[in-house]
Amino acid sequence: MKKNDQHVSLDSLSIKGWRTIKNLENFRPSSVNILIGPNGAGKSNFIGFFDLLSWMLSGKLQERMVQLGGSNDVLFDGPEVTQHLEGELVIKTSAGLNQYKFTLQFARPDRLYFAEEAYRFSQDDRDTKADWTYLGGGHTEARLTEGSSVTAKVVRSLLKKLIVYQFHNTSDTAGMRLSWNVDDGRWLKANAQNLGSFLFRIMREEEEFYIRIVKYIRVVLPFFEDFELYPEGYNIMLRWKEKDSVKIFNAGQASDGMLRTIALIAMLAQNPNDLPAVLFLDEPELGLHPAAIDVVAGLVKAASLHCQILIATQSVSMVNNFTPDDLVVIERKGRDSQYKRYSSEELSAYMDEFSTGDLWEHNIIGGKP
């Protein structure tokens, strides 16, 4: 079944005890959600929760916990204050509500294990919700990944359609600067390490969308002519041609901003049927020219017709491309991250004088240090 054969969206979310998020209850995302706030407010922590979920669904929770510094670094104010990390997600489809919840319990010396894990599906045409299916406790990796029932498989499949993209790593050893398996290009990976393979697949199989991607890149990078993509044995490297030059350039020669621009445009301008159900981006403006930010914002709005999008940003240029209804303002109240929405109607008295970015910059809606 293609993704667009049934509408899939994150209907609501609850998080307790995760980093700066003490208690986020029943957060209801809309089609576009632009998370703004000062440094340390909790924007990246919000998106980081979904990154953790992705590792959990891959059976690698403990590996990720080691990378994050252990339970002391992920529990709200540490295990002395918080001993449980809880999450509950409701994913809505045309058939009904798919729910998954879990509680991770602190254990010495510095780890987390599952105290509770459960899932259920409730049909839209029923007055009462279905009973939870509980997966027990005491395990160190998610048991949903092992569930053999139809409901477990569907819930697991839907949760895997919530994808966090982050293209910050453009170091000399970053995957997108290196060659990659030519056959591994069906989906763009979360860090774009298979960018060359991904574009090569689109060039061969979906010319319409390949042309679209190239045209948008030319808007932002006027010197860009076209990609030069060809296999070298089993691998492929991202290469391109520039106008008025016979030289072929490779990813190792690209600036950080150029690589991120290509990755963002390739991801957002691909075939809409291949977009994830819910797409997360953490500070996509990093290293981008303001003109590039406007192009990316336009692609975000176009993509939001086909999938749900949540973006954490520090860019006024990015915010100016959206309405107050799209904003989620995040501020720290004491130790706790608080999430607030406004509507264009609430702010109508300001809209004749101020852009959306101005409302933020002038602290009318908060979200400033």
Tell me about this structure:
The chain has 369 residues and is of the alpha+beta class. The chain has a domain at 1-29 and 38-161: Rossmann fold (3-Layer(aba) Sandwich), CATH 3.40.50. Helices cover 28% and strands 27% of the residues. The strands form four sheets. The chain has a six-stranded antiparallel beta sheet with strand order 2-1-4-5-6-7. A six-stranded mixed beta sheet has the order 8-14-15-3-16-17, with helices on both faces. Strands 10-12-13 form a three-stranded antiparallel beta sheet. The radius of gyration is 21 Å and the shape is globular. Mean pLDDT is 95; it is low at 1-5.
Summarize the structure.
This protein is α+β, with helices and mostly antiparallel strands and 369 residues long.
Topology:
Layout: E1 9-18, E2 21-27, E3 32-36, H1 43-57, H2 61-68, H3 71-74, E4 84-92, E5 96-107, E6 111-123, E7 133-134, H4 150-159, E8 162-165, E9 180-181, H5 195-205, H6 207-220, E10 224-227, E11 235-236, E12 239-242, E13 248-250, H7 256-268, E14 278-282, H8 290-303, E15 308-312, H9 316-319, E16 327-333, E17 336-341, H10 348-351, H11 356-361
Parallel strand pairs: 3-15, 3-16, 8-14, 14-15
Antiparallel strand pairs: 1-2, 1-4, 4-5, 5-6, 6-7, 9-11, 10-12, 12-13, 16-17
| Silhouette | globular
Average pLDDT metric: 95
Task: Report the oligomer.
Answer: single chain
State the CATH class of the domain at 1-29 and 38-161: Alpha Beta
- Topology-level CATH name of the domain at 1-29 and 38-161: Rossmann fold
The gyration radius over C-alpha positions equals 21 Å
Q: What fraction, in percent, of the residue positions are helical?
A: 25-40%
Going by helix content, strand content and strand pairing, the class is alpha+beta
Order of helices and strands: EEEHHHEEEEHEEHHEEEEHEHEHEEHH
Distance between the termini: 46 Å
- Report the biggest beta sheet as strand number plus sense, adding barrel if it closes: 6 strands, antiparallel
Low-confidence stretches: 1-5
CATH architecture of the domain at 1-29 and 38-161: 3-Layer(aba) Sandwich
